[in-house]
Amino acid sequence: MKLSVSTRAATAGAVAMVTLLAGGTLADAATTTPPRPAAAPDIPVTSVKAHLSQLQSIATANGGNRAHGRPGYKASLDYVKAKLDSAGFTTTVQQFTSSGRTGYNLIADWPGGDPDQVLMAGAHLDGVSSGPAINDNGSGSAAVLETALAVARARYRPTKHLRFAWWGAEELGLVGSRYYVGRLTTGDRNRIDGYLNFDMIGSPNPGYFVYDDDPAIEKTFKDYFAGIGVPTEPDTEGDGRSDHASFKNAGVPVGGLFTGAGRLKSAAQAAKWGGTAGRSFDRCYHSSCDTTANIDDTALDRNSDAVAYAVWELSA
């Protein structure tokens, strides 16, 4: 709640008096600002990969996939939910029906923060039926999960309220995220300051693509990559094809990261990022070979750190 003009004046006077009594000056009182929250932690790629190994094991034990309406999807959701519950999040499972099968979204709220300023980060947890879906999209799901757990470990107390989400039935047309957004009241929708989406962030022949939607969110990601000396390009292949579109279409500011899918890496991109020109960013896109072997550790590490960086910067 904002302070009224009279209350602000009284508060400022009190701060000045305390400062003077402590031996300071009015200038000190005028320039005193609350301390900035600690910088984002490094996200250990080994921890992110441990989640991917669990998702691989779940797929292997459930018909080789984690697709909507299949046992592997529900087991994946149960795994993520158990981690969040143990870490102190308030979790909600949202149920819907698509293609005659039951689907689920998982929403996790971190206690505290301004409920009128909500920052969301999310990823789709489902995959196609042809494989275990580790890059698409175990990679984004695992990075978001480990970032959420880092929030809990740090006992982070941001200004904004943090909410994390894992979407069902993205592969059927963004069904889960559309269901969630479609059931928000106008007030709830207006309280979301931004939605960050992470879909395929460990491609084996990676590019470094940043969504060019909301300028402030885009700049946050570009600043992170500039800080580690990695050039980026705007995402065009995945534009509008993942869950951020559900939020963007409802007027919510969006942004996110992507390392490429079926398009071929150009010679210029290979010169800039390494890898192999003339080969797709992910040759196992929507295929049975999208396993834990289908991950570039460096791309996964950089992007996971970028997830945390953006969450910390945009929620402070």
UniProtKB/TrEMBL annotation:
SUPFAM superfamilies, alphabetized: Zn-dependent exopeptidases
Name assigned to this protein: M28 family metallopeptidase
Family per record: Belongs to the peptidase M28 family. M28A subfamily.
Gene3D superfamilies xref list: Zn peptidases
Family annotation (Pfam families): Peptidase_M28
Signal peptide: 1-29
Organism encoding this protein: Streptomyces thermocarboxydovorans
Residue stretches making up the Peptidase M28 domain: 105-310
Keywords of this entry: Hydrolase, Metal-binding, Protease, Signal, Zinc
